[in-house]
């Protein structure tokens, strides 16, 4: 099976290394998409084209896994890659009913979506290892913490945040993996997103916002199809 992995807004593709090691060890092919961090004006479709260019024909009908805010890009990327399945890993699911942009949803529903500690942060976790350790990597051992901190990188797709979202492809099923101890997105909000927006029951696992770093084996088992 082939997997394409989409990093979120606080990590580089290196954040996927622990999970990629498990998947390749099981005989799967893995592609890590590296979104540009210096072009905030790119649209959602631009990011989908970038993913398709990077993956090329190396992966066939991949399972596309999006972490955190890259869920905003997942529907378009999955369509571009002809995905066989979409996996939302502690990820934002676009609003399919009202068609609100992510920026609009944050303005109107921030308290429902996020841990209040997260929204009151004085700086990004990519700028403060202590903040990153508390919010992103609190559930792993020392080695996982080191790997997580080494992967920190800010990715802010500003224009995409203001776009009406792409629709989730109807031809490919979705799986939502929900870490119960997430300190950024609220677990209750993620549960509702999975059931109301995707029509699926989430697979709940122990762990924080970056379980692919702290618990890659658990995540690999959850996305084994």
Overall mean pLDDT: 95
Q: What Rg is obtained from the alpha carbons, in whole angstroms? A: 16 Å
CATH fold name: Rossmann fold
Beta-strand percentage? Answer: 5-15%
Number of helices: 11
In which range does the helix fraction lie? 25-40%
Query: How many separate structural domains?
Result: 1
Strand order of the largest sheet: 2-1-3-4-5-6
CATH C-level class is Alpha Beta
CATH-derived architecture = 3-Layer(aba) Sandwich
The structure class reads alpha/beta
How is the biggest beta sheet arranged? 6 strands, parallel
Low-confidence runs? none
H-E string: EHEHEHEHHHHHEHEHH
CATH homologous superfamily (4th level) name: Alpha/Beta hydrolase fold, catalytic domain
Amino- and carboxy-terminal Cα gap: 8 Å
The total strand number stands at: 6
Question: Which term fits the overall shape?
Answer: globular
